[in-house]
Amino acid sequence: MSRHESLQRVLDRGLVAIIRASSSTQLVNVARALYEGGVDVIEVTFTTPGVVEVISAVKKDLGNKVLLGAGTVLDPETARTAILAGAEFLVSPTVNLEVIKLALRYDKGIMPGAYTPTEVLTAWEAGADIVKLFPADIGGPAYLKALKGPLPQVRIMPTGGVNLQTLKEFVKAGACAVGLGGQLVEKEAVERGDFARITSLASQYVELMKQARA
Q1: CA-CA distance, 185 to 26, in Å (whole number)?
Q2: Tens-place pLDDT, residues 18-30
Q3: What is the mean pLDDT of the chain?
Q4: How many Cβ atoms are within 10 Å of 67's Cβ, its own excluded?
Q5: pLDDT (tens digit per residue) in 65-74
Q6: Which residue, among 18, 40, 33, has the nearest Cα to 160 in the 3D structure?
Q7: How far apart are CA 149 and CA 173, in angstroms?
Q8: In whole angstroms, what is the distance from residue 74 CA to residue 76 CA?
Q9: CA pseudo-torsion sign 194, 161, 210, 132
Q10: CA 149 from chain center: how many Å?
Q11: C-alpha distances in angstroms, 148 versus 27, 99, 151, 156?
């Protein structure tokens, strides 16, 4: 899938599920539960043990039904490893220009993390498809709205602090999409193997995004 196609899918859906866990055992089931709930853009973080195997396994299990990306990509070596494992987009908590450059070289989506106006613009001008506002719980929707004032051209995805109560406000403030970690992929549900809970939450977020955009 091309970078442009990946970007369009993220923008169309508006929801990026972030899977991070201390064990990789059940993460394929988590990905399937998200997909069944209507969330088909999934980021697996590199803080997860055996993350390369997880990405490969999810890719094998669900194929192009989901748009699969890698998160917490801190350097170009990790970026290349993720792409070779099957990641279609890369997400980082920071602005690393070499990671952005490598993603563009491989025609993969790139969403670096930034917080200050300088960081946001630096990431955008380097070629970011979307700039991840992180941590978005500091400042909340009001901060996103303030950033969009002088930087209306930048596609921004808040991550951190987005939940069922705040999602609409973030969209209203100018979010092109939102990143959802523990508020969607609940740690307790993963540990219990309660995949129905994850599917249910995914459905709620999908419906809420439709309402927010309407």
Answers
A1: 12
A2: 998 877 788 999 9
A3: 96
A4: 23
A5: 999 999 999 9
A6: 18
A7: 10
A8: 7
A9: negative
A10: 23
A11: 35, 24, 5, 8
